[in-house]
Amino acid sequence: MVTFEEIVEKAKSLKNPPTKEDFLEFYGFYKQATVGDCNIEEPEDEEKKARYNAWKSKAGLTIDDAKAYYIEVYKKYVAQSE
Question: Which residues belong to any copy of the ACB domain (predicted)?
Answer without folding.
Answer: 1-82
